[in-house]
Sequence to fold (480 residues):
Amino acid sequence: MGALLSLPLLAVPSVGTLMSFGASCCGAAACSAICNQCGIFKSSMATRIAYAFLLLINSIISWLMLTPWALKKLEHLTLDYVNISCQGKQCYGYVAVQRVNFALGLFHLILSILLLGVKSSRDGRAALQNGYWGPKVIVWLAFVVLTFFIPETFFQVWGQYIALGGAMLFVLLGLILLVDLAHTWAEYCLEKIEEHDSRGWRFLLIGSTLGMFTASFAMTIIMYIFFAQSGCAMNQAAITVNLIVLLIITAVSVHPTVQEYNPKAGLAQAAMVSIYCTYLTMSAVSMEPDDRACNPLIRARGTRTASIVLGAIVTMLTIAYTTTRAATQGIALNGNSSHTYNKLGDEDGEHGLVDQQPTSRREMRAEALRAAVEAGSLPANALDDSDDSDDDSDDGRGGKDDERGGTQYNYALFHVIFLLATTWVATLLTQNIDYEATGVAAVGRTYWASWVKIVSSWVCYAIYSWSLLAPVVMPGRFGN
Fold:
């Protein structure tokens, strides 16, 4: 934590900076020693939460560096004795935000390369993903420091082209995952209803569908009342288009032709897509500037700070969900599950029999299990059960390694998604910066951010519509 608090001071290329960095390293090293005593994370969920927390801290630092507010507070704490500057230039604003997020993005890019091809925690490189948290924090902070020695022109190009492209890709990825979640949720509920004829699952499916549609129409009414006054043509158009498309995709979902080619399509998926897109539209109109007197939230007394904090929380939750969902599901980029079992005798000339002497009792047991799985005597997951029963599958403190049989998600893809997340955070924070502001900066309160959300809702509707119409247009490719 000392490293985080001293981060702005680290940007000053001086002896004091080096001393501060050394102290931070010592603190991180001590933390690493403690973590080593506790062992690496055996739970894949704990690892994902840790990386999400690191992204959250990085995003908060980026947000604070938008304006000189945080730097002035630090200078005030030193009784104005320390004048914080970066090579004689400002340590806040557009370039500073790009530097901080570029550092974390570079950190994830390197990890993604190092972790290519890791299939289970048996691979020695898996420790890079689940452990070494002290050294990893040191590397991240070192990258942040080093970025302040890179010329500003690099980050001007990076932010305007590369980061912007990565941000758009991240938004598109989130929309695809949302549509995938809608289909997965509805199909899962239908499977439970068919298997158990459960009233509880039937009530949950119907109740959630009605609830989401009700919330969508309620948000639409609120938007018309508060954000669609006379002269607010942009808001009126966005709200109306959203309502019309909502009704269209709902009708398409239950159209007889669509039902014929995709019997599991229905109102549940349409409800989830509708409430999300309506939320995007409401977020867009509620976060736009108030230069045309179309946003009463900005004029409302006492809501500015609350809306800023709420917007930041929602943004971070969205990023955390998108990265976690992408990492675990792979969105067809890593479609095959990591829990794969090689059949005996796949190659030409193989007879499927054990023809080599195992070198240990464990290997003998594994060979016997594989032969039993191939013969159909045991289910395929018996191999995982065997892995879990090994002595080294336990961390020594009662916790089991849930990735010895295979990783729960693609490590390399996981870090690529986090890299894209850093570009989205940087792009979101650096659009139309108010350099005259002295307090905390509002996140996403620009027309650019509003239009990104509005267009994103339209793209989400389009992706969902295509998921319904694709089996009709190309039945051979999407056969039942």
Q: What stands out?
A: Residues 111 and 342 are 28 Å apart (CA to CA). The chain has a mean pLDDT of 75. The two ends are 55 Å apart (CA to CA). The chain has 19 helices and no strands.
